[in-house]
Amino acid sequence: MSSSTVDPADPVFRLHRGGKLAVASTVPLTSREDLSLAYTPGVAQVCAAIAADTRLADDYTWAGHTVAVVTDGSAVLGLGNIGPHAALPVMEGKAVLFKQLGGVDAVPICLNTQDVDEIVATVRALAPSFGGINLEDISAPRCFEVERRLDEALDIPVFHDDQHGTAIVVLAALRNAAALLTRKLGDLRVAISGAGAAGVAVTKMLVAGGVNPEQVVVCDSRGIIGPHREGLTSAKAELAELTNGDGRRGDVAEALRGADVLIGVSGGQIAEAAVAGMAPGGIVFALANPTPEVQPEVAARHVAVVATGRSDHPNQINNVLAFPGVFRGALDARATRITDGMKVAAADAIAGVVADSLAPEAIVPSPLDPRVAPAVAEAVAEAARRDGVAR
Fold first, then answer.
1. Checking CA distances to 76, which of 32, 119, 161, 251 falls within 20 to 30 Å?
2. Residue 25 is assigned to a structural domain of this protein
3. What tens digit of pLDDT does each residue of 351-363 get?
């Protein structure tokens, strides 16, 4: 967008003028004594103590409550590879949500590289300043390697929100949709349209949450994924081994034939005739944003429950239901990593917030429901202790 297309009177641009974040001091600095305590000579005592025991940094610096929100600008919203400068408003917004909803301080970091080795090395070098790393808007399949390598290298939580935040909220929504329809997760036949970062994570999360992997069929732009496919990436090859127990072949319409659930995380459009081929009383989560894979009013002609990624429709599957509480709980437990058990606990907590008031138009809480982050944080912290990753 050129500067000539920026309208200073537009409320969006007015809100973003000067950015959405600022640094605020937590200590007074009004006297010589204040200065001597906050800076030299007093600060030297704290530095010496941390040098003797680096774990003290969690208590005596901001690291214990601060997360780095890291991107390379390669997969931002629906805009694609727009680079680090254009990604910064999104990362600032993410940091605002961390603070407002989870009480977690967050710093946006937009890297001017899309090389996996450089990203990993840079984040490793920055890690001592933070209690956790939230990876954001890094394109697949590079995002899988970046997260894996950082998770192995660091002793603080590393969480790629485009994968796991989406997957946690999808599991929460599917739990409640199944409960509303008096169905069991293990009995559901699930079709997933999209095998990128979100599609891979959603598949694994649903299996961890109780869905039978043999009854899951995953599609990419070339059709159903299975052992019959050649040239699969390592992530898709793993899906081919894990899912599609019936050995189906074909396109998304074949995947949907008789399916109970459609989860769209691709952006590709799905014909109404394909949705009509689902089993009666089905569930559709069409999560592409801003244009769902199938329009909600179209899906509603054929299924019982519909959710989207949009805020102007009921049942918004929004990552903001997950990440503030996940990191709050991980930081509270001083977790060294985020386990599958912690993610499932987060999904259960989200689902539990509205479990007593379920309706077809209300299977997940509002993204701004103040009950969500505390419930998720408590569940995640407890799961971290149970899984042996709390310090």
1. 251
2. no
3. 999 999 999 999 9
